Amino acid sequence: MAKSQFQLITNGFFFHRHPDLPAILEDIKCNPEVSIHRSGQDYTEKFKPVQELLDNWKRQHNFKLHNRPSAAKWRTTFGGYSSEMKPFNDGTREKSFSCSNE
C-alpha cells in the first residue's frame, strides 16, 4: 500500500456531513487522524457518535484511522471553560484577550 501525500487531521465532528469521504480516503490511500481535544466524561459522550461512525467506515473501507491524543500535549493557559473561562488567572478576560496595549 502506497503512503499518502495527504494528511487529514480533524476532530471528526463533521464527518457525518460527508458520506462519500470514506471511499475517497480509501481511493487516495489516506489514513486520517482524529484529534482528541479533551479528556473527561462530557467529551467522551459527545465523541461517541463520531467513534461509531468511524468504526462503521473502517468495517466498510480499507484505510486505517488513528486517534491522536492532542489534549495531552497542549498547554493550558486558562482556567475554567466556556463563559467561566479566566485566562492567566488575572480576572480580566477582556484585557487578556485584547491585542492592544491599552
Structural class by SSE content: alpha/beta
The overall pLDDT, averaged over residues, is 78
SSE sequence, one letter per element: EHEHEEEH
Estimate the helix proportion, in percent. 25-40%
Distance between the amino and carboxyl termini? 57 Å
Low-confidence stretches: none
What percent of residues are in strands? Answer: 5-15%
Give the beta-strand count.
5
Q: Give Rg in angstroms.
A: 18 Å
Strand order of the largest sheet: 1-2-3
Spatial shape: elongated
Structure annotation, total helices = 3
State the main characteristics.
102 residues; alpha/beta; three-stranded parallel β-sheet; 5 strands; 32% helix; 12% strand
Describe the SSE topology.
Blueprint: E1 9-10, H1 21-28, E2 33-35, H2 41-60, E3 66-68, E4 78-79, E5 86-87, H3 93-97
Parallel strand pairs: 1-2, 2-3
Antiparallel strand pairs: 4-5
Describe this structure in words.
- With 102 residues, the protein is an alpha/beta fold.
- The protein has a domain at 9-75.
- The chain is 32% helix and 12% strand.
- It contains three helices and five strands; from the N terminus they run βαβαβββα.
- The protein has a three-stranded parallel sheet, with no helix packed on it. Strands 4-5 form a two-stranded antiparallel sheet.
- Helix 2 links the parallel strand 2 and strand 3.
- It starts with 8 loop residues before the first strand and ends in a 5-residue tail after the last helix.
